[in-house]
Write a structure and sequence with these properties.
By secondary structure, the chain is of the alpha/beta class. It has two domains: 114 residues, NAD(P)-binding Rossmann-like Domain (Rossmann fold); 182 residues, NAD(P)-binding Rossmann-like Domain (Rossmann fold, 3-Layer(aba) Sandwich). The protein contains 13 helices and twelve strands. The strands form two sheets. A seven-stranded parallel sheet has the order 8-7-6-9-10-11-12, sandwiched between helices. Strands 2-1-3-4-5 form a five-stranded parallel sheet. The chain starts with a strand and ends in an 11-residue tail after the last helix. The chain binds glyoxylic acid. The site of glyoxylic acid has 7 residues, from loops. Glyoxylic acid (GLV) binds next to loops.
Length: 320
């Protein structure tokens, strides 16, 4: 019987499938496992189902021991996992691509709408009981039709966001490290350009790239300065892709018009300069947070563990 550690509460019933044939340690708590606890509990397990706030590094792998065969991350992003350290120890790493594409693209589009129409501030106004009344000139945002959305990172989620924006009448620019799917580009009538052009031409820049050493602070002071003063920045990827201090400075000096953020540099800490601004919309990293999507993510992670433990190939391996 293999030993499996699940570090946090999973939605749905996927842990039952693990418990059926394996010795399961399930931490049925809706919060990250404290590091000290994690290092103790991981000792001797064959598989770990981890969440994106668990740091899977050499220390954790050594604490687990050489019998560890698979780390299944319940996320599409895997910047919390040291892939080289896993490869050195022959530990398979898996993620959950595909199943969260629509949910995350929905949130990106929601942030596009919320930031361009100032809906965060508008909602707060009603909620706080501040006097308001209908007027022709109150709460004016900007329209999306005919405006340009720049997608940085045109993978599955970036392209799904672009398709939504297209339905709202936006023109699409795409930029990324690898060439986007040609048919998708044609379907969108999109242009593939460099980052400087995306920054210069877009009315909304939406970030969808993974966090890697190359994309850390991809959007910093110079990039923000290169954007239109009327433009908005949306980030549903990973917080450190944006230099948060530079973003606050750019908003303060009017270099860009607003931002919609679902992710932050030091989650759950949010830069105080963002908290007090009315031109930003702040969500608590909920890109994939629907019942259906989170259940599908948990199922896929468990399927990956079961496949590896039974000697088969993982369904969605991450290749470093
Ligand atoms: C969520 O942020 C994910 O990477 O799945």
């Amino acid at each position: 019987m293999a030993r499996v550690l699940v570090t946090a509460r999973l939605p749905g019933h996927s842990t039952e499938r693990l418990a059926a044939d394996h010795d399961l340690t399930y931490r049925d708590v809706d919060a990250p496992m404290p590091r000290d606890d994690l290092l103790v509990r991981v000792a001797g397990v064959d598989a770990v189902v981890a969440v994106l706030v668990d740091r899977v590094d050499a220390e954790l792998l050594d604490a687990a021991g050489s019998q560890l065969r698979v780390v299944a991350n319940v996320a599409v992003g895997y910047d919390n996992v040291d892939l080289a350290a896993c490869a050195e120890r022959d530990v398979v790493v898996t993620n959950t691509p595909g199943v969260l594409t629509d949910a995350t693209a929905d949130i990106a589009m929601a942030l596009v709408l919320m930031t361009t129409r100032g809906l965060g501030a508008a909602e707060r106004r009603v909620r706080t009981g501040e006097p308001w009344g209908w007027s022709l000139t109150g709460h004016l945002g900007t329209s999306l039709r005919g405006r340009t959305l720049g997608i940085v990172g045109p993978g599955a989620i970036g392209l799904a966001t672009a398709r939504r924006a297209k339905a709202f009448g936006m023109e699409i620019l795409l930029t990324g490290r690898s060439e986007p799917d040609r048919r998708a580009v044609e379907g969108l009538g999109a242009l593939v350009v460099g980052l400087p052009e995306v920054l210069r031409e877009s009315d909304v820049v939406s970030l969808h790239c993974p966090l890697t050493p190359e994309t850390r602070h991809l959007i910093a002071a110079d990039e923000l300065r290169a954007m239109k003063r009327t433009a908005h920045l949306v980030n549903t990827s990973r917080g450190p892709v944006v230099d948060e201090g530079a973003l606050v400075a750019a908003l303060e000096s009017g270099e860009i018009a607003g931002a919609g953020l679902d992710v932050y540099e030091e989650e759950p800490h949010v830069h105080p300069g963002l908290l007090q601004r009315d031109d930003v919309v702040l969500l608590p990293h909920v890109g994939s947070a629907t019942v259906e999507t989170r259940s599908a993510m948990a199922d896929l992670a468990v399927d990956n563990v079961l496949a590896v433990l039974s000697g088969g190939d993982p369904l969605s391996p991450v290749r470093g």
